[in-house]
Amino acid sequence: MFTGIVAAVGKIISISPLGTQPDAGVRLHIDAGGLPMEDVVLGDSIAVNGACMTVVAKTPSSFEVEVSRESLNCTAGLDAVGDVNLEKALTLADRLGGHLVSGHVDGLGIVRKFAPVGESWELVIEAPRELGKYLAYKGSIVVNGVSLTVNRVTDLASGCEFSINLIPHTLQATALKHLKIQSKVNLEIDLIARYVERMLSLNNSA
């Protein structure tokens, strides 16, 4: 589990294929940035742009993970060199500064607007239609591993748009500052919303 509070901005510095087949995955070598690596051991989980990955190799300043082709097809930002948001798995002694995050990407969103509003920035993302029912005003959403609060939700024929306000600190401390119009982003819906939907569907079918 994670909190969606980014601990460091790292960087994918190299990508190596795991085989010669078209459906082969890749091995990512990631510079950990400011993420402390002293307590990381092989097999530990680290969220990379919101996707939970297993550490298969490490140095004092970097680590490596292996990503299947299926995971690459379902995520954004793990197939190219560049900055990524990093967070180590939550421990029971940690503060839950964001919200409970599993590190499992539920779908890809598309940035429709990213513009300054006063001292902050407004980020508008179009989510797939099937995720729209989980989005609510003042609810939680994870975008590329960052726990954020939804300020507005608009249902569209093509999907569901939601708006987020990004304060300067969030932009400075995460890789969200690199987003552009049409950028694809990893989305994870709120875990509680998922369970509520499941319980309601069972009640309605009884």
Secondary structure elements and their pairing?
Layout: E1 8-17, E2 26-31, E3 45-48, E4 51-58, E5 62-67, H1 69-74, E6 82-88, E7 107-117, E8 120-127, E9 140-143, E10 146-155, E11 160-166, H2 168-173, E12 184-189, H3 191-205
Antiparallel strand pairs: 1-2, 1-6, 2-5, 3-4, 3-6, 4-5, 7-8, 7-12, 8-11, 9-10, 9-12, 10-11
Question: Can you give a write-up of this model?
Answer:
The protein is mainly beta and 206 residues long. It has 2 domains: 8-88, Elongation Factor Tu (Ef-tu), domain 3; 107-205, Elongation Factor Tu (Ef-tu), domain 3 (Beta Barrel), CATH 2.40.30.20. It is 13% helix and 42% strand. It has helices spanning 69-74, 168-173, 191-205, and strands spanning 8-17, 26-31, 45-48, 51-58, 62-67, 82-88, 107-117, 120-127, 140-143, 146-155, 160-166, 184-189. A 6-stranded antiparallel barrel has the order 1-2-5-4-3-6. A hairpin with a 2-residue loop joins β7 (107-117) and β8. The chain starts with 7 loop residues before the first strand and ends with a helix.
Shape: globular
Largest sheet: 6 strands, antiparallel, barrel
The tally of beta strands, per DSSP, is: 12
Tally of alpha and pi helices = 3
Question: Strand-and-helix sequence, N→C?
Answer: EEEEEHEEEEEEHEH
What is the total number of structural domains? 2
Task: Provide the residue-averaged pLDDT.
Answer: 94
Q: CA-to-CA gap between the ends?
A: 32 Å
Q: Rg, please?
A: 17 Å
The residue ranges in which pLDDT falls below 50 over 5 or more consecutive positions are none
| CATH topology assignment of the largest domain | Elongation Factor Tu (Ef-tu), domain 3
Q: What is the strand content? A: 35-45%
Question: Order of strands side by side in the largest beta sheet?
Answer: 1-2-5-4-3-6
Helix/strand structural class: mainly beta
CATH classification class of the largest domain: Mainly Beta
Task: Just name the CATH architecture of the largest domain.
Answer: Beta Barrel
